[in-house]
Amino acid sequence: MPYPISRRTVLRGLGTAIALPWLEAMTPIRSARGGEQPAKPPVRMAMLYVPNGMHMPDWTPEQEGTDFTLQPTMEPLAPFKSDLTVLSGLALDGARAHQDGGGDHARSVAAFLTGAHPKKTDGANIRNGVSVDQVAAAKVGGKTRFPSLELGCEPSASAGNCDSGYSCAYSSNISWRDEQTFVPKEVNPRAVFDRLMGNGDEKEQGQSRERQEAKRRSVLDFALADAKALQNRLGAADQRKLDEYLYSIREVERRVKGGDKLVGKEEDVLDYPRPSGVPSDFVEHLRVMFDLMTLALATDSTRIVTFMYTNDSSNRSYPKLDVREGHHDLSHHGRKREKQEKIAKINRHHVEQLAYFIKKLKDQKDGDGSLLDNCAVMYGSGIAHGDAHAHHDLPIALFGRAGGTIQPGRHLRYERDTPLTNLYLSLLDRLGAPTEKLGDSTGKLEGLDG
Length: 450
Prior knowledge:
By secondary structure, the protein is α/β, with parallel strands linked by helices. The protein has two domains: 1-40 and 201-277, no CATH class; 41-187 and 283-450, Alkaline Phosphatase, subunit A (3-Layer(aba) Sandwich), CATH 3.40.720. The protein has eleven helices and 17 strands. The strands form six sheets. The chain has a seven-stranded mixed β-sheet, sandwiched between helices. A two-stranded antiparallel ribbon has the order 1-2. Strands 3-4 form a two-stranded antiparallel sheet. Helix 8 (282-298) runs parallel beside helix 10. The longest helix is centred in the C-terminal third of the chain and has 27 residues, at 337-363. The two termini are 43 Å apart.
């Protein structure tokens, strides 16, 4: 006979603490009317950033409401159209010059989650605003092992001049704990995996890694006893789900540990230095990071994730798409058709990887629905047309239902220059972290619930 288990149950072993996804046996809660009900899954939030703007004619749907057609860039998302909300008309005023001259790429990253106008400096006196993820982490992050996760595919920088007198800290970090402190992102999948599966004891985790390397063992091998004991307490459906979950961990671990052995050519990029242990293939890097993000959200190890595909002004090339010019260079296309077509290829390629992540979330059961149902996943850029460095009518897409508080499957158009930060106030409400003001916000974004 199966027994109830706590939502906080973990599988333990040497240096190991493996959190579990939602199971039917998770401890129920007592309702106000008496009796017991399954614990309601929490709402999670993930914020994904892509650089250098978008080829907007291939992004923005022509129709509004539910009867809209996906444009070419968004066609890979067709299977998830009912989970998608396209938001048009939103703006990022903090990314505009305001008499500071050039530096739109740095400002677009720095302002993306803060709504602030960063101080123009390439010295140590950087100043920005608090980002929405860190506002959420301060209010609800104590409920999870990790208040937030900051991830990406290109390393953070803390100094240097990266854009017309703006510090590289601005163009490579979207998460800011306070006005002077950015939160650097982790780009190494193995480091993320070790953090998610570790028990926080550095000595034990070191011993565990040594044994794994010496005997080519899986992290799961150190938690087998706990896993077997748990299996005996679960019903048949939960036993199958636990088996599938452990298999998925082993598969991610295999990919993570083999990441630095993947075949790849340095010609695939123009200016991207690859840290040790990071997959040389960009798509593999993206997808294994998405797998890790799914694990983190599914196990409620964190409820808040930020992710940068690349740093802004990234000049990565995409030879596999027959695009050998740098992304940033192409974004300044001067309305040349050939360059616009190549930018559109890159944009669609990024969305194809996004579709992979959305499918992972949708396939993961969470309570009575999917993990995606209990998420709010935002994807977008702080620049619209890259050639013009426009910061109004941004390419912003939202996925999921945030626990039933968002009605997706629509294209919503807002009044021009509506602050993007108004969306963040609405999402913070849904996350259980209500906030009155963030950056240049003027109020909450209406209409998300239908």
